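WARN no homologs supplied; continuing
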Amino acid sequence: MTVHAVLPGPVDTDMIRGWDIPKASPESVARAIFDGVDNGEDEIFPDPLSAEMAESRRRGAAKALERENAALLHAVSVGA
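OK structure emitted
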């Protein structure tokens, strides 16, 4: 089993249709999500705005802590 986090920016849906900001189409976001799953990405940034933030998230403290915890979990499960 795999888990994927999808972290979209604004998507052109009824919820934010009236906002005057750049929005990705639902179709392009859906395609990018499926592409991310097919490529084995654990975090999927499916539109231009979220893609701009992807690298800073990958280098950030929260992601580093996530990697450390995953390594500990792997060490425990291998040693069990």
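The beta strands are 5-6, 43-44.
OK
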